[in-house]
Amino acid sequence: MSTAFTKLLSIKLPIVCAPMAGVAGGRMAAATSKGGGLGLMGFMEGEQLAKEVAIARSELGLNADDALPIGFGVLGFRIETPATKAAPYLRSLVAQRPAAIWLSFGRRLEEHIGSIRAAEKEFGVKVPVIVMVGTVELGVEVAKWGADVIVAQGTESGGHGNMHSTGLPLLTLLPALSSALTLLPTRPLVLAAGGISHASQIEPLLQAGASGVVIGTALLASPESLYSPAHKRRVLAAVEGEAVRTLIFDRINGFDGEKGYGIGIDGRALKNEIVEGEEKGEGFEQLKVAYEAAKGNDEEMKRIVIWAGVGVGLVNSEESTETIVRRIGEDLAA
User: Fold this and answer.
1) Coil, strand, or helix at residue 7?
2) Distance of alpha carbon 154 from the chain centroid
3) Which of 164, 177, 307, 315 has a 20 to 30 A CA-CA distance from 237?
4) How far apart are CA 50 and CA 55, in angstroms?
């Protein structure tokens, strides 16, 4: 299926693998690319980043100096620290000649777009910049900063995004954002994200203004997912309604508010003893101790966080990422 987005990225399908940190590595990104979509690696740094890029190149049969037909996800607040210099980090990504760079959750996103543009000139390449938003207001602002593509993320999405009180469901956000962008002299393309796992959901989104869609939860149990076998079993056992929005895990990890993902942002994860404990009024320190005791134990599923969207109940097999992407594309064309 051809859309403005597939033409921009020179891909066959308007399907993007969400850059899920801790889930989407080189194999998942490469498999999405093989399936005809755009694969994105989740945020990584240093040796882990180099390792996963090498894996992606190997999976795709590429040399070290070949252009990379996958992209990188960047958590803005993670490169806005003294330990990570934003401009050099982004320059290193552009040097790989990736298909795209996806930015989210930062206080200096306009500056980051400028850094990418500067690196493009240095290396003589063009790298489409994708920015994820959860509100119309931020979407309009990002468009003015020069983003090529904006992701309209509904509150149905797994992982981090706007709280119910600050965000909107996808079918409300998408048309509202698309309408607002038509008033601008230059209109970026729009992708839809949040609860998407089947082709039947995509056509209405394209009609509502999207040029493509982002899938994430549908890929959590795939062989290419970086989730552990125990995590994948828990995903496969999940039912509708288990993925809830919560701030407790970010509070425990120190990623809440201005020091992390931002004000008005929380995460959607599978309900477990930590979430239930907070709902029952258990003390924060007690919950933190219980969570920390479970970290690092891949078999511990009652207290560790598993990010997932509202469609997690529809994930019922360990199909490969490539198979899932191809099937959605075939169903979309039928």
Assistant:
1) helix
2) 12
3) 164
4) 9
Do residues 197 and 156 lie in contact, with contact meaning Cβ atoms separated by under 8 Å? Answer: no
Q: Which residues on adjacent β-strands are paired with residue 265?
A: 162
pLDDT at 82: 81
Instruction: State the sign of the Cα–Cα–Cα–Cα dihedral 246, 150, 100, 323.
Output: positive
pLDDT tens, residue by residue, 278-321: 999 999 999 999 999 888 776 777 898 999 999 999 999 999 99
The DSSP letter of residue 297 is -
What does the pLDDT read at residue 298? Answer: 67
In whole angstroms, give the CA distance from residue 129 to residue 135: 18
Residue 295, CA atoms < 13 Å, CB-side half-sphere? 9
For the chain, list residues with pLDDT below 70: 298
Q: Is the sign of the CA dihedral 105, 269, 72, 162 positive or negative?
A: negative
Strand partners, 74: 103
What 51-55 contacts at long range (C-beta under 8 Å, 24+ apart), as own/partner pairs, is 51/26, 52/25, 52/26, 53/26, 53/96, 54/26, 55/25, 55/26, 55/27, 55/30
The phi and psi torsions of 103 (rounded to 5 degrees) equal: -110, 145
Residues in contact with 17: Cβ distance below 8 Å, sequence separation at least 6, in sequence order: 24, 28, 29, 32, 37, 38, 39, 40, 214, 215, 216, 219, 321, 325
| Pair 236, 221: CB distance under 8 Å | yes
State pTM to two decimals.
Answer: 0.96
Q: How far is CA 48 from the centre of its chain?
A: 18
